[in-house]
Design brief:
- With 442 residues, this protein is mainly alpha-helical.
- The chain folds into two domains: 2-397, Alpha/alpha barrel (Glycosyltransferase), CATH 1.50.10.10; 411-442.
- The chain has helices at residues 2-28, 35-58, 71-86, 90-102, 113-116, 119-122, 125-135, 142-155, 171-174, 176-186, 190-206, 234-250, 258-274, 297-312, 318-333, 362-375, 413-432, 436-439; strands at residues 207-208, 213-214, 282-283, 295-296.
- The strands form two sheets. Strands 1-2 form a two-stranded antiparallel sheet. Strands 3-4 form a two-stranded antiparallel sheet.
- α13 (258-274) crosses α14 (297-312).
- It starts with a helix and ends with a helix.
- Residues 1-27 form the signal peptide.
- This is Glycosyl hydrolase family 88.
- Residues 387-442 are annotated as: Disordered.
- Keywords: Hydrolase, Signal.
Length: 442
């Protein structure tokens, strides 16, 4: 009974919010929001997610899934890693850093080769790359580089094997941007070259050249909905176009196949824009609106991000696509729940299914953050691609990993002596331990 009452209360609160928001949708969708307003919206959502995740850690009785390094969490961190570079969000920055340190900059998987090359498990590499560029600490990057190096030969096997490494369209968001940026960070083209080889193998197998959309995987090429329509999953297309945006963000301007990526991006965005519905959102099954008539926000957030990215970087014509961006952003904001988190999200899966208003997920929040950060730049001049990588700073570190232990306000003599001993031990580590950066000079 209590649970039912809580559900009814949530539904009423959400419905009231939607009624109020829908009155403002048309006006909001005709005007570019102020940059600070948009950044504030994004910060609130990111902080709400961080607070929710921290509560789960401290309250096991909630029986909710903790933060981890899988693709769901990784997509959230793709957004927050960009957010902390442009906004002051100390809670989000601390959560990014603490999570990466907690998992030792590593990846999930059970150790079998098929897990080592799994794109879903490599998506978290985006966070580790961002932290490396922020700190300059090589150990942050080493586990990722090892995992990518192991994967490289399988991406470009010749002759091409019967099965794809990246056999599902979602993977084009998960791994290719990480490989592309690894080449930008290291200066070694082996990562982007292997990525490029596998990417176009996926394209050849999954891309429908008539409708300019991707089948989720080869099962869906001939499959039809109950209404006889081809099945093109909204979030599946979102994964691809958002992945393309992130690839182009780091791909060298003179990379031989770059024009093909630009052409594919433009081709898909043209098709996707035409499928937007009057409320600004897209449906889970893009070509079969009757199958799932309700809006779906995770695909919409990815599309809004990609459209705004295309405008901001000169890939899409502003006059044509700006109305789609503004309608998408206004529509998404209608589904921010009382918790501050985006609702109306399709749960994790592999095809269109019904969507519930109260459903939230980390990947949708990550997509919303990405969209908001591009919306915030719509009044800025066009920014040329690729975006320059920040130069990693000179690292700040101490040879000792003994954690600080501040003395209380009125320490006892024993506490003072222990503090002095700990500090002396910490100094001894620094004085006596060989440091490759400091002591390996010729």
């Amino acid at each position: 009974m209590v649970k039912l009452t809580q559900t009814l209360a949530l539904t009423l609160a959400i419905s009231s919010s939607l009624i109020f928001s829908s009155v403002q949708t048309n006006a909001a969708s005709n005007k570019i929001p102020e940059r600070e307003q948009t950044i504030t919206t994004v910060k609130k959502l990111a902080s709400a997610e961080v607070a929710r995740l921290k509560e789960i850690e401290t309250k096991p009785e909630l029986k909710r899934r903790h933060i981890n390094t899988n693709w769901i969490s990784a997509t959230f961190f793709v957004g927050t890693a960009k957010l902390v570079d442009v906004a002051d969000v100390p809670d989000v920055l601390a959560f990014n850093m603490e999570t990466a340190q907690r998992f030792n900059y590593a990846h999930q998987g059970h150790g079998a080769p098929v897990h080592l090359i799994n794109a879903d498990d490599q998506a978290i590499g985006d966070l580790y790359q961002a932290i490396y560029l922020r700190t300059g600490l090589p150990g942050v990057l080493m586990p990722l580089q090892q995992r990518l190096d192991y994967t490289l030969p399988y991406l470009s096997l010749t002759p091409a094997p019967q099965k794809l490494v990246w056999w599902w369209c979602d993977s084009l968001f998960m791994a290719p941007p990480v490989f592309t940026r690894m080449s930008a960070i290291t200066g070694d083209t082996k990562y982007i070259d292997a990525m490029d080889k596998q990417f176009w193998r996926v394209y050849d197998r999954l891309y429908d050249k008539d409708v300019h959309l991707f089948a989720r995987d080869e099962r869906f090429i001939e499959r039809r909905s109950a209404n006889g329509k081809k099945i093109f999953w909204s979030r599946g297309q979102g994964w691809v176009v958002a992945g393309l945006a992130r690839i182009l963000e780091a791909m060298p301007e003179n990379y031989p196949s770059r024009p093909q990526y630009v052409k594919l991006f433009q081709e898909m965005m043209t098709s996707i824009a035409k499928l937007q519905q009057p409320d600004g959102l897209w449906r889970a099954s893009l070509l079969d609106l009757e199958a799932h008539p309700e809006p779906e926000t995770s695909g919409t957030a990815f599309f809004t991000y990609a459209l705004a990215f295309g405008i901001n970087h000169g890939l899409l014509e502003r006059e044509i696509y700006l109305p789609h961006v503004l309608k998408g952003w206004a529509g998404l904001n209608n589904y921010i729940l009382p918790s501050g988190i985006l609702g109306q999200v399709q749960s994790a899966g592999d095809q269109p299914v019904p969507t519930k208003l109260e459903t939230t997920t980390l990947y949708a929040s990550g997509a919303f953050i990405l969209a908001g950060l591009e919306i915030a730049n719509l009044n800025q001049p066009i920014s040329k691609l690729p975006l320059p990588l920040p130069k990693p700073p000179k690292p700040e570190y101490h040879a000792s990993d003994i954690p600080p232990s501040p003395l209380p306000a009125n320490p006892t003599p024993e506490q003072v002596r222990e503090d002095q001993r700990r500090n002396a031990e910490k100094q001894a580590v620094k004085d006596l331990m060989f440091d490759p950066w400091a002591d390996a000079k010729p």
